[in-house]
Design brief:
308 residues; alpha/beta; Rossmann fold; Hypothetical Protein Yjia, Chain: A,domain 2; 9-stranded mixed sheet; 5-stranded antiparallel sheet; 9 helices; 27% strand; CobW/HypB/UreG_nucleotide-bd; CobW-like_C; GTP-binding protein
């Protein structure tokens, strides 16, 4: 039986990982395989983890999760050969990826026969200014979507969701728009019961020239950071950042790892798991538009965070 694919797209920091986490943690008996660009970003509850091999993490609820290394079609082929075979496959794209290219690859006749693209979900931060939808990449992410999920409504002002819905309607897209509080979306929308029907034909549109818009800069330290200093540093860097995420220990709470996320101008901290032996005490990845933030500037600002 064919294994339907759910493609999850959306801009940097929109909340894609939260949606995928929720799907895997509430699989309701379904065997779901998730393919993600950065497995480290997936934060599955510890009690769901069962084991790992060959880059594939098995979850105690029957689901699996693997990182996307190399060719997407080769990764799909590996998953489809597993026994038992997954019942659904979820692909989480990078926030800077044009999903039209992935849709085009998934239209390969061999793939369609074995793993048809059933649903495309575009995740959007409800607090995003409607004008941001004029961006060519975000427009492409919306254009291929069957469902648009508005996330982070609890962090946005009261009228943000209504303004974003109006902006999406103005684009005259056929997609269904739903609220996704805390990453929750009705499973019936994402996993239709009738999986044996032929998938709807899709037109990903003309292939656009690839454009390198963003770059990734990493910073690590073998010493813990001062939390007040880190907050000051992020405040300085925020105007130049598209996204940031990382793990670190603080001098205020030694031996306890914190998870740091920055998206859409908002920074959050949450307690993490125990520090990994031998790993740097602080490691943060920053994403910015090309040429906006230099490595020297980043290191100069971040080194001031390290505890004396």
């Amino acid at each position: 039986m064919p294994v339907p694919i759910l493609l999850v797209t959306g801009f940097l920091g929109a909340g894609k990982t939260t949606v995928v986490n929720h799907l895997l943690a509430h699989a309701q008996g379904r065997r779901i395989a998730a393919i993600v660009n950065d497995f480290g970003a997936i934060n599955i509850d510890a009690e769901l983890i069962a084991g790992a091999s060959d880059g594939v993490v098995s979850l105690a609820n029957g689901c699996i999760c693997c990182s996307l290394e190399g060719d997407l079609l080769r990764t799909l082929s590996t998953l489809l050969r597993r026994d038992p075979k997954p019942e659904h496959i979820v692909i989480e794209t990078s926030g800077v990826a044009d999903p039209a290219d992935i849709v085009r690859n998934l239209m390969d006749p061999v793939i369609v026969r074995e793993a048809p693209l059933e649903t495309v979900l575009c995740v959007i931060d409800a607090a995003t200014p409607p004008a941001a939808l004029e961006d060519a990449l975000q427009r492409s992410q919306l254009r291929v979507a069957d469902i648009v999920a508005l996330t982070k409504l609890d962090l946005a002002d009261e009228g943000a969701g209504a303004r974003m819905r109006q902006a999406i309607r103005a684009l005259r897209l056929p997609a269904v728009v739903v609220d996704a509080r805390h990453g929750e979306i009705p499973s019936a929308l994402l996993f239709p019961a009738n999986v044996e029907r032929a998938p709807a034909p899709r037109d990903p549109g003309p292939k656009r020239p690839s454009e390198e818009r963003f770059e990734t800069l990493s910073w690590t330290s073998d010493r813990p950071v001062s939390l007040p200093r880190l907050q000051q540093a992020i405040g300085k860097l925020a105007p130049k950042l598209a996204r940031a995420k990382g793990l670190f220990e603080t001098v205020e709470q030694p031996g306890r790892q914190m998870v740091f996320q920055f998206a859409a101008g908002r920074a959050t901290l949450a307690p993490g798991e125990a520090p990994t032996p031998g790993a740097p005490r602080a490691r943060i990845v920053f994403i910015a538009e090309l040429g906006v933030l230099s490595k020297a500037e980043l290191e100069g600002v971040m080194e001031a965070c390290v505890a004396d």
